[in-house]
């Protein structure tokens, strides 16, 4: 059929086709020499041929009932043809008739039309058309036994009927799933109601286990049910309605069907196989068979195929078939276009791949593979692979998009470098990588005690924080702010907390920071753009839950580049930093697991919105006893080891440390004390080196000597090997070997001499003892003198307490009489006092007069006396309201001529009515 349909590829219609058929076939001289399909198609198109194909019908699986009222005649004609022994050129029909196992022409005894009662076989997928094979799977054991009995008794016929769709079944369920299973379970009356009335009389060709092969013969209509198990029904044999085979409309429709089939055959090899099988087993085409053939091999759904099967009007059946094959043609065109597009894409990608591989090989040979985009992408993907499971999906999506963009950019473009740097940061961050925290309170207590002396209240607050974290499972909450003077250990406490919690530690200072981009990052479009400090921190520490120490938060600047204090709000606030957005990365980062510790010298300098989010832990400073312990147990030991001095070479007495604290280092912290102890040990180190002492371990000297000797020995060995070769060649080499032995002996003598000189120098050196007597030789004259100027303060002199940047100090307030007389009552303050302190002096003068008037009404000292009030250390600016009670006591001491106790010091602000206010922050 393929040859025939291909031969009809023309634009001139049926006339052209007939002109292309060989003359002997057009004239009907040797029709049997052509294939059956060629004969039928030639007869359909040829108008002046010798004979119509419909007058010479071969049996098609016995008789399919085409409605021409010549069934018996056709059978006799077919039998006559077979018995006459007329030879056919292709031998298809005769070959089929002679094959008993697969022959489409079967014995007419009994004839198919004699079967009025048949077993009903349900078909689930498609109806069986006359002339077609169909294998089915029979699960019902009883039905299978009945079919096998019929097959053995040569009553090998059954009725094949399509099963109707169940209205309750979801049409979206794929065929062959639950719907098919339910059909196999149907029995008797229920199955009978689900069958279409029109089906096909099917000959049982073979039975292999549960698989039965059917061959369709003619159309049937169910009239009534005979038996339920297996389902047996009475049927009427249907014949096609009479039609005029010379009708132009029917001819035109059949020509269009054939033309469409021809076009489909060009694209589908499967259809070609159908045609070959059909023409081999059926023989000639006629209009009804052409309609059945087109519908049977089309990919239409079963309901449309059932309509074709039920249609007995040949013209209408041809029209239905034409619709189906036209639709099949459209599907074939779409399939061809899809296949072509995919093939073009695949070939293009394959070509690109081959070219890229060749390019890689060329670059590898030339050694210029460093800037390869593929290598970059592979590096980023490899770096991401370990974090892929923990990385948020939106981050993965951004990374994939950027990797795709990287492949499309040219390596020389500026955008390429921006994308590469961006991917470098994105893939380097520790997405979801958390370090295991240690909430052991005893462990934290031990670490805090190892690193810090005193500060019991601060340690207690930190342990409370860790205990809450243990109960909650996470150490989150308020931001800790350690406030206090410089040198009291705020930064080192933050480091100790990180060590106690087993967290990574990162510190950055925001003192003087005036650019918001340092915290929030730059935009990627800027030249030299960088992410903010927090992103840099996460990359450096490698975990997503470090302890971040933000130093000097009270010294934040504010410039033209924004307000960093406001930018810190999003960073520090636990309610916001779960989705912290850096301008450079532009993807949300979870900082809720990060523990922030801030440090500040003065809490009042921190902006209020920022201060509101913090929990203040104050470190007031150290008293003398605490400084003694810190200096002895922490500072002195650490500094001595750092300077390389052994304990038996130096002794720093407790009296010397105490003198350092009182006369040199009065600040609240211990940083200045550390500097003075370092100064002492540096001078001792210089003295030791000048006297020839060396504290280098002997092992190191030996290693250095050995290394030099090894170098010499190596060269000597090489030389000796050369000499050996020379000796083997008959040349002298003994002299070089003797020189090598002499050099080695000299090196050993030098080494022994050096060891002996070091030992003698260490033995001759005496231990250095630093005491109060020689302390000034190392650190100079005392900076501070004793605050106690008087053993017994005179009248009008009182010791006061003052707050300073170094923690605090004592100072004297002195009042003396200038002159007396009527109307001379006045006060003259001096000592570089601030405005507030001058007001305090005036208030003290007024309150003193009121107290004296109450206690001694006859004493008119203040009314007649001009007083001079002075606060010593005139070069030091002094201000504040808390000197009020000290000034009042000094004035009353002068007025009443009574000295104050020598061990008394005081401070406090006085109101005009004589009330003393509490001291702020005490």
TrEMBL record:
It is an enzyme of class 3 (hydrolase). Residues 792-922 form the Lon proteolytic domain. GO terms for molecular function: ATP binding; ATP hydrolysis activity; ATP-dependent peptidase activity; sequence-specific DNA binding; serine-type endopeptidase activity; single-stranded DNA binding. It catalyses: Hydrolysis of proteins in presence of ATP. Residues 118-329 form the Lon N-terminal domain. Keywords: ATP-binding, DNA-binding, Hydrolase, Mitochondrion, Nucleotide-binding, Protease, Serine protease. Residues 16-26 have a biased composition (Polar residues). Pfam families: AAA, Lon_C, Lon_lid, LON_substr_bdg. The active site is at residue 882. Residues 1-26, 77-111, 697-737 are annotated as: Disordered. Its main location: mitochondrion. Gene3D superfamilies: 1.10.8.60, 1.20.5.5270, 1.20.58.1480, 3.30.230.10, LON domain-like, P-loop containing nucleotide triphosphate hydrolases. It is found in: Mitochondrion matrix. One of its GO terms (cellular component) is mitochondrial matrix. Its EC number is 3.4.21.53. One of its GO terms (biological process) is protein quality control for misfolded or incompletely synthesized proteins. Residues 708-719 have a biased composition (Basic and acidic residues). Residues 77-88, 96-107 have a biased composition (Low complexity). ATP binds at residues 484-491. SUPFAM superfamilies: P-loop containing nucleoside triphosphate hydrolases (SSF52540), PUA domain-like (SSF88697), Ribosomal protein S5 domain 2-like (SSF54211). InterPro entries: AAA+_ATPase (IPR003593), ATPase_AAA_core (IPR003959), Lon_bac/euk-typ (IPR004815), Lon_lid (IPR054594), Lon_proteolytic (IPR008269), Lon_Prtase (IPR027065), Lon_prtase_N (IPR003111), Lon_prtase_N_sf (IPR046336). Belongs to the peptidase S16 family. ATP-dependent serine protease that mediates the selective degradation of misfolded, unassembled or oxidatively damaged polypeptides as well as certain short-lived regulatory proteins in the mitochondrial matrix. May also have a chaperone function in the assembly of inner membrane protein complexes. Participates in the regulation of mitochondrial gene expression and in the maintenance of the integrity of the mitochondrial genome. Binds to mitochondrial DNA in a site-specific manner. This is Lon protease homolog, mitochondrial. It comes from Acorus calamus (Sweet flag).
């Amino acid at each position: 059929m393929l040859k025939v349909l291909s031969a009809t590829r023309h634009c001139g219609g049926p006339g052209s086709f007939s002109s292309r058929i060989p003359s002997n076939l057009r004239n009907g001289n040797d029709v049997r020499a052509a294939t059956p399909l060629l004969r039928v198609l030639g007869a359909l198109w040829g108008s002046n041929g010798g004979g119509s194909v419909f007058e010479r019908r071969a049996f098609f699986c016995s008789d399919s009932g085409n409605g021409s009222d010549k069934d018996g005649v056709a059978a006799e004609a077919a039998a006559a043809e077979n018995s006459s022994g007329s030879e056919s050129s292709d031998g298809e029909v005769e070959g089929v008739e002679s094959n008993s196992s697969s022959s489409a022409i079967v014995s007419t005894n009994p004839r198919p039309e004699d079967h009025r009662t048949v077993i009903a076989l349900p078909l689930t997928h498609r109806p069986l058309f006359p002339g077609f094979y169909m294998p089915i799977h029979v699960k019902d054991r009883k039905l299978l036994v009945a079919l096998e009995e019929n097959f053995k008794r040569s009553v090998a016929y059954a009725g094949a009927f399509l099963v109707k769709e169940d209205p309750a079944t979801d049409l979206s369920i794929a065929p062959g799933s639950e719907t098919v299973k339910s059909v196999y379970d149907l029995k008797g009356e229920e199955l009978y109601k689900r069958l279409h009335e029109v089906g096909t009389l099917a000959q049982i060709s073979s039975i292999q286990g549960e698989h039965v092969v059917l061959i369709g013969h003619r159309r049937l209509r169910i009239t009534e049910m005979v038996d339920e198990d297996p389902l047996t029904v009475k049927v009427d044999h249907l014949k096609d309605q009479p039609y005029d085979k010379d009708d132009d409309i029917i001819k035109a429709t059949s020509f269009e069907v054939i033309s469409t089939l021809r076009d489909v055959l060009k694209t589908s090899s499967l259809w070609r196989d159908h045609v070959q099988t059909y023409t081999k087993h059926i023989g000639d085409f006629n209009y009804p068979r052409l309609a059945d053939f087109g519908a049977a091999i089309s990919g239409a759904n079963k309901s449309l195929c059932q309509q074709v099967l039920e249609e007995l009007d040949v013209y209408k059946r041809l029209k239905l078939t034409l619709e189906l094959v036209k639709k099949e043609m459209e599907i074939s065109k779409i399939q061809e276009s899809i296949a072509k597009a995919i093939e073009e894409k695949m070939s293009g990608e394959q070509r690109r791949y081959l070219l890229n591989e060749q390019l890689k090989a060329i670059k590898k040979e030339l050694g210029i593979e460093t800037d390869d985009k593929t290598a970059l992408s592979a590096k980023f993907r490899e770096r991401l692979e370990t974090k892929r499971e923990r990385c948020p999906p939106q981050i993965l999506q951004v990374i994939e998009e950027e990797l795709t963009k990287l492949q499309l950019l040219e390596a020389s473009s500026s955008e390429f470098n921006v994308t590469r740097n961006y991917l470098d940061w994105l893939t380097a961050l520790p997405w979801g990588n958390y370090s295991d925290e240690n909430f052991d309170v005893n462990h934290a207590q031990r670490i805090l005690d190892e690193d810090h002396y005193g500060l019991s209240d601060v340690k207690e607050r930190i342990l409370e924080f860790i205990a809450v974290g243990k109960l909650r499972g996470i150490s989150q909450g308020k931001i800790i702010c350690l406030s206090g003077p410089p040198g009291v250990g705020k930064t080192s406490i933050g480091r100790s907390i990180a060590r106690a919690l087993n967290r990574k530690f990162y510190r950055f200072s925001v003192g003087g920071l005036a650019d918001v981009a340092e915290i929030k990052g730059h935009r990627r479009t800027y030249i030299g753009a960088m992410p903010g400090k927090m992103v840099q921190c996460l990359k450096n520490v490698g975990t997503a839950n470090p302890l971040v120490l933000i130093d000097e938060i009270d010294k934040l600047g504010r410039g033209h580049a924004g307000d960093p204090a406001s930018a810190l709000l999003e960073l520090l606030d636990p309610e916001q930093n779960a989705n912290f957005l850096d301008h450079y990365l532009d993807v949300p980062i979870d900082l809720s697991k990060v523990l922030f510790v801030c440090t500040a010298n003065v809490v009042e300098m921190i902006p209020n919105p920022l201060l509101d989010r913090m929990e203040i832990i104050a470190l007031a400073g150290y008293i003398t006893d605490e400084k003694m312990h810190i200096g002895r147990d922490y500072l002195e030991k650490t500094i001595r080891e750092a300077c390389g001095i052994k304990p038996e070479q130096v002794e720093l007495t407790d009296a010397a440390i105490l003198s350092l604290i009182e006369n040199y280092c009065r600040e609240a912290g211990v940083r200045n004390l550390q500097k003075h102890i370092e100064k002492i040990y540096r001078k001792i180190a210089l003295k030791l080196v000048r006297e020839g002492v060396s504290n280098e371990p002997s092992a190191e000297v030996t290693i250095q000597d050995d290394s030099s000797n090894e170098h010499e020995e190596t060269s000597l060995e090489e030389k000796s090997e050369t000499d050996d070769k020379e000796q083997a060649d008959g040349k002298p080499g003994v002299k070089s070997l003797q020189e090598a032995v002499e050099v080695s002996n000299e090196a050993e003598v030098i080494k022994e001499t050096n060891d002996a000189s070091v030992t003698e120098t260490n033995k001759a050196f005496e231990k250095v003892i630093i005491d109060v007597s020689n302390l000034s030789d190392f650190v100079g004259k005392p900076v501070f003198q004793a605050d106690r100027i008087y053993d017994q303060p005179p009248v009008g002199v009182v010791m006061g307490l003052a707050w300073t940047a170094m923690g605090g100090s004592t100072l004297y307030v002195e009042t003396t009489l200038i002159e007396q007389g009527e109307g001379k009552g006045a006060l003259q303050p001096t000592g570089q006092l601030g405005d507030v302190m001058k007001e305090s002096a005036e208030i003290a003068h007024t309150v003193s007069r009121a107290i004296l008037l109450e206690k001694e009404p006859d004493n008119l000292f203040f009314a007649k006396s001009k007083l001079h009030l002075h606060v010593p250390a005139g070069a030091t600016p002094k201000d504040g309201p808390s000197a009020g009670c000290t000034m009042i006591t000094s004035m009353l001491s002068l007025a009443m001529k009574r000295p104050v106790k020598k061990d008394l010091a005081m401070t406090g602000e006085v109101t005009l009515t004589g009330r003393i206010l509490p001291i702020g922050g005490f």
